[in-house]
Structure formats: structure tokens, C-alpha cells
């Protein structure tokens, strides 16, 4: 008998029906394998939509920023960590690994002491730069003061009637 409770799958034999059995490691391993297979199926479905695929590769808070910094020459881990405000080591490392796994960045390790690692854009990564630059251009347009903002009075309110 299989008991499914949330994400936990417990395999019970007829003698364990009383609920005394606790999930062992093999049950958890089976549950993880099931989850991995579901994730693979979901990824295949998502790849049918090009926008979803693009968001899977460069979506999120940090990846566009990382790509922008690497394209401007900030290609070492420590430099990226200093330049990107608000990111921590673990998140930067995770995002760089994902970008490398997706073929967007290439990691080069130099056999020096202390070890030096540099990240460069691959051809696939360079093909994404127009998207990242378009995001930057949109941000510049939003930041620019508009005519509407210049009409705000001292109290931060817009006038009710044009004069």
C-alpha cells in the first residue's frame, strides 16, 4: 500500500497499516526521483514556449545584472561581488553556475596561487545581450524625468486643472 501525504510518499506493507511505520531513506529517495522526473517533464513542456525558455535562462533578479556586468568587463568573482549591490557569495555562485550550465557564460580557471577564475560570454550569451540592453534602455526611459513629474507641486501632488 502506498500512502501519499503532501510531498512525502510512504510505502506500507500490510502489517504496517496501523500507521506505526515512519518513512525511511529509500522512501525519501523514491520521492525525490519522482520529483526529478516531474521536473524534467515540466521543463520539456516549458521549452515549447520561447518566452518561458528565455525567462528560465535569464529570468530572476540577478542574472540580467550579472550578464550586464560581465559584458562590460567585470569578469572575476570578487569584482562581481563588489559591483553588484545586495548579492551575497552564495547567490552569486549559484547564479554563475546556472548561467554556465545553460551555456551563457564560460568559466576559466587559471592555475595560479591564489586561484583565479574569470567568466566570459559565450556566443549563446552574446546573443542574449540585445535583450539585456533593451531592459537597460527601458530602465533609462523610466528614470528620466517626464513632463508630468515637472508639474508636481511642493506637496508632491499634481494640479487638478491645467493653467
Note down, in words, how this protein is organized:
It contains seven helices and four strands, in the order ββαααααββαα. It is 52% helix and 12% strand. With 163 residues, it is an alpha+beta fold. Helix 3 packs across helix 6 (123-143). The model is unreliable at 16-23 (pLDDT under 50). The strands form two sheets. The protein has a two-stranded antiparallel ribbon with strand order 1-2. The chain has helices at residues 25-46, 50-58, 63-71, 77-83, 89-101, 123-143, 147-150, and strands spanning 2-5, 8-11, 105-110, 116-121.
Distance between termini?
Answer: 78 Å
Into which percent range does the helicity of residues fall?
Answer: 40-55%
**Low-confidence residue ranges:** 16-23
Q: How would the global form be characterised?
A: globular
Biggest β-sheet strands, sense, barrel: 2 strands, antiparallel
Strand content: 5-15%
* Rg estimate, integer Å: 25 Å
Q: Overall mean pLDDT score?
A: 76
Structural class: alpha+beta
Tally of separate helices: 7
In total, the number of strands is 4
Oligomer: single chain
**SSE order, as H and E?**
EEHHHHHEEHH
Order of strands across the main sheet? 1-2
Produce the secondary structure layout:
Layout: E1 2-5, E2 8-11, H1 25-46, H2 50-58, H3 63-71, H4 77-83, H5 89-101, E3 105-110, E4 116-121, H6 123-143, H7 147-150
Helix pairs in contact: 3-6
